[in-house]
Amino acid sequence: DYGTHVMVGGELNAYADGGNIFVTSTMMRFTGDDELRVIVAHELAHNARGHIGVRQRSALLRVPASPGITTGGYLTSEGAKSSAPSFSLETEREADYVGLYALAIAGFPLDPAPRFWRHVAQADPEGIGMAATHPTPAERFVRMEQAIAEIERKRAAGLPLVPELAVMAAVADPAPRTRPDSGAPAPRPTPNRAAPR
Predict the structure, then answer these.
(1) pTM, rounded to two decimals
(2) What contacts 85, CB < 8 A, 6 or more positions away?
(3) Containing H/E element for 79?
(4) Is 160 exposed, middle or buried (0-12, 13-18, 19+ CB in 10 A)?
(5) By C-alpha distance, which of 22, 16, 20 is closest to 1?
């Protein structure tokens, strides 16, 4: 139950602040309905997973000034600098992954997700993405294709569409865990299939 807002003008971008979802009118013009659902699902996942702290926003893209995409929006504004977003590869990957489950549960098509990142990469291959804070568009659409295959396997088997806790733990902590007493890898948590969170 998050507020949704369109910000007139600005960059090709979307944001979440923990309680709301914001999409720029530039992004609205860039995408069709199917791609727009992917963006909103990604931002919804940031809010639902608690990725955003007080006075922070999580932006979908990091967009430096370039001829391919308009600028002058949130990431370059003085207001943004005073409450700069907290970016993390892990939270971006998790929001992509959980966002796909949100789309699947709502009954929307999943193919537009990797297609959106191809669209972004084609629009401005040099200007999109900052590897330290966001996955590249290429990484995103490969990971999304893998997640879509996982969701389709669950649908085919009649399993609940619940994100795998072990997958999210691996995204958040990619290093193998070890038991202090033996040095052997510790087991990952077993996914709870009882009910979605």
Answers:
(1) 0.70
(2) 15, 56, 57, 58, 59, 75
(3) helix 78-82
(4) exposed
(5) 20
